[in-house]
Amino acid sequence: MGDGPGHDRQARASRPDARGRTMSALVSPFDHLRPGLWPTGGTAKGRLPTALLPPVDGPGGHPPPTPEHLLAVTRSVTRLVLADPSLVTEAALLDVERLLADDVVTWSPALHTGSRAALLAALADGDDAVTDVQLTVVGEAVAGTTAYVEWQLCGRFDNAGFVNDDILVEPSCAPVVCPGVLVLTFVRGQVALIRCYYDALSLVEQVLPAEGRLDLRRGPSAG
């Protein structure tokens, strides 16, 4: 991410931005995929949320938010969606609710929701397989109405989990590291679209046992 308005890439990786007990529902090595319903009750596939429609503010409407404002909102939302839910106070949650569109769409390899209520409900149910989770924000940037956050989650695989609903993976207490990028799209000053990108296969491979491990990218190993 290059320099520009709203860019803030300091030596932030030297300290964690948040540390908690569980992994966010957006980033999970195990089965937590939620298809999510849109506020109208239909499935998310093929539907455009009203929050993504073009702005209708006229000449007398509110001025567009500044990059500094969008960056401040981005930092609050990042902590909400990636940090341990136990670290988010009720007051902070109510404050962040103002910043999310009612029909905000959220996507990650582990989670897909089509409303603010569905997202907040999913976040309250984190993944406790990976514990002692540390969130570090590596870089931030704002370009127009889109914000980008480069992040890293580190934790320890302490509790059992399931792969493909039926394969039990016992905990190894091994470290787990997951880097990724969060992309937030704003409409009328609120977050209308949240996209969370990371290497889901790499995350799963880190929690599989070393002996007899399947190479998820190429099938069973020849050994």
Could you explain how this protein is built, in words?
- The protein is of the alpha+beta class and about 220 residues long.
- It has a single domain (about 10-40, about 65-205), classed as Nuclear Transport Factor 2, Chain: A (Roll), CATH 3.10.450.
- Helix content is about 20%, strand content about 30%.
- The chain has helices spanning about 65-80, 90-95, 115-125, 200-205, and strands at about 20, 100-110, 110-115, 130-145, 145-155, 160-165, 165-170, 175-185, 190-200.
- The protein has a seven-stranded mixed β-sheet. A two-stranded antiparallel sheet has the order 6-7.
- The longest helix is centred in the middle third of the chain and has 16 residues, at about 65-80.
- The N and C termini lie far apart (about 40 Å).
- Mean pLDDT is about 75; it is low at about 1-15, about 35-60 and about 215-220.
The largest beta-sheet arranges its strands as 1-4-5-8-9-2-3
Q: Tell me the strand percentage band.
A: 25-35%
Specify the structural class: alpha+beta
Biggest sheet, in brief? 7 strands, mixed
CATH class: Alpha Beta
- Which word captures the global form? elongated
Return the domain count: 1
- H/E topology pattern: EHHEEHEEEEEEH
Return the CATH topology: Nuclear Transport Factor 2, Chain: A
Low-pLDDT sequence parts: 2-15, 33-60, 214-218
- Computed Rg: 18 Å
Number of helix segments?
4
Q: How many strands appear in the DSSP assignment?
A: 9
